[in-house]
Write the structure tokens for this entry.
Amino acid sequence: MRFALLGAGRIGKLHARLLSETEGVSELLVADVERERAVEAARAVGATACDSVKTAIDRAEAIVIAAATDAHAELIRAGADRGVPVFCEKPIALDLGESQRVVDHAQQKGIPLQIGFQRRFDPAYREARRLVETGELGTVYAARLAGHDPAPPHEAYIPASGGIFVDFGIHDFDVIRWLLADEVEEVYADGDVRGFPIFDRYNDVDTAVAAMHMKGGTLVVASWARHDPLGYDIRTELFGSRDSVSVGLGPKTPMRSVEPGVPPPAGPAWQNFLVRFEDAYRAELAEFARVARGEVESPCTGRDGVEALRTALAATRSRKEHRPVRVEEIA
């Protein structure tokens, strides 16, 4: 099948390489609003650079969207209008209503839509989900989620990101739904600017926390930070009546124990999300190729994207209003 990759920035370049290695991708087209970036990404993997995004869409049999967030909704609609399967990196849009309208449009056109939450394809996350599904963890009492970026994004990114919960926390809001096969009922969130005053200029924070109550009763706590001097730290801990497990705890975790006699992690620490989750991205795109061929249903639907965003917006409101917010308030 002929795949079109729309967007040739940092993650777009990774996707270009992974798609060029994916079974079933017979031809790869690359397009970007800055054509030079498309040419560079295409040349690196032996793909074809298109003169415009429209040209790539018109020629595509399946579309992968890795463009800027504010272009996602328009590009999904364009793919749906062409009647071809679409994969789009999160989020669908920054606005819940617009996100739902885009999902409805894709459904009306009858196309498969897969949203890019790559943690669902990481081997450790998948094992944690299996342990929950099989009952090997028993009753899941509580979960802890942690996300620390190695360095803050550049200033121009901040006002277009949707804020720390929509840009960063949304991965955790999705993965906890998926791990527990449950929905977030209520969230209380807070945050502050601890090291980078530039975030305050855009009414955002560089450090945040949230406490969530799942509908099934599990209690969840989460923390995020835009700076970790040791590397990229993404962890999930599940505490059950039969077992307790951790995702992201290993020789490359950028954290050390101060217990006597415990050696530091062997390292090197994960430096960014592209390195930490490359295998997950590879598996995610391979699954989308199967979706595009009609072999399987989308493993991460438009509705999944909408619900993760709904929780992120509930957390955003909670921080601003300094109160617990029921997710159903966000409509």
Observations:
- The two ends are 38 Å apart (CA to CA).
- The chain has ten helices and 13 strands.
- The chain has two domains: 2-111, 120-273+308-329.
- The first helix runs from residue 10 to 20.
